[in-house]
Amino acid sequence: MSEEMSRSERLRMRNENDLRMMLSTPNGRRFLGNLIFDPASLLGGGTGVNHATFSQSHATMAAAEGARDVGLRLLACIEALDFSAALQIRRERYDEADAEVVQERLRESEVPPESFGIPVHEGPVG
Predict the structure, then answer these.
(1) Is the pLDDT of residue 89 over 60?
(2) Residue 116 domain-assigned?
(3) Which of 29, 39, 67, 99 has its CA 20 to 30 A from that of 122?
């Protein structure tokens, strides 16, 4: 019995180390953030922890709720292991979203980019 416990303990430690490795890199945090927060879909996507799972189809709703449950469990593991990394995942997602919104508004805007403090170079830069 103690050998089985040590095996399960080794597995738990290996999983924690794997998760710590993913949390230590921007790519790993981005992957986990997408997996946790992006909406679930049949074609891929995330677990949609912040999205409603209601559907008139019981099967669709059950599948979405199951995916959401996996995301909530993963998020709980991350928060228990390294709460600051969980916050960093959110912060990096919001920073990336803000940058995309600003770029989109610049493309749609009649306002010149220099009014946003973005330098505009005319002609060759040298």
Answers:
(1) yes
(2) no
(3) 99
